[in-house]
Write a structure and sequence with these properties.
The chain is mainly beta. Helices cover 15% and strands 56% of the residues. The protein has 1 helix and 7 strands; from the N terminus they run αβββββββ.
Length: 183
């Protein structure tokens, strides 16, 4: 009788564990054997962006030695920036980010000086920031970047000067791992 009781108890426990396993499997969805789902080669993060409107007004005046110099410079800029990022195969293999700014600028210069400068100009703005980090989780991660930015420099009694800075580069780091794992 003792042997029958143990067998019955084992059967009840086996049925209960099968019921728990079946209910856990029902929550997770179907299990497919023999098929492996591949991750996409290129992942793309959601785009985000901004719209900016900025202006600059410079009014300069100088009198002395019987001369009077005046200069007025007005600059308006409209900029749209879009940015995104993602990974190639995995973000641990290649993690990339990109940002592009495009827009228009309108400048008006009016001056009363010996040169008598007056005029207006219409132009465009371009800026970008591209970067990628490869093998991020290894001992030898490599980063590459390309950037371009634009800004304006104000000079006395002259129109604004547009300063465009471009930079390109790469960096390879060597990171060491602890020789004995922390416990």
């Amino acid at each position: 009788m003792r042997g029958i009781g143990r067998g019955s108890l084992a059967a009840v426990m086996a049925a209960a564990s099968l019921g728990v396993a079946a209910s856990a499997g029902a929550d997770e969805g179907p299990v497919v054997l023999g098929q492996q789902q591949r991750a996409p080669i290129l992942t793309l993060d959601p785009f985000h962006g901004s719209l900016a409107l900025s202006g600059l007004f410079a009014n300069q005046s100088n009198t002395g030695s019987g001369q009077s110099l005046k200069s007025t410079d007005t600059l308006l800029q409209e900029q749209l920036t879009l940015a995104t990022g993602g990974g190639i195969v995995s973000k641990n293999l290649v993690d990339w980010h990109a940002s592009v700014t495009a827009g228009l600028n309108e400048e008006s210069v009016q001056g009363q000086s010996s040169t008598g400068q007056t005029g207006s100009s219409f132009g465009y703005i371009t800026a970008y920031d591209l970067s990628a980090t490869m093998l991020k989780t290894t001992e030898f991660p490599v980063s590459v970047f390309a950037q371009q930015a634009q800004q304006y420099v104000s000079n006395s009694f002259a129109g604004l000067l547009q300063d465009t800075t471009s930079s390109y580069g790469a960096r390879c780091s060597i990171t060491s791992r602890p020789s004995c794992p922390l416990r």
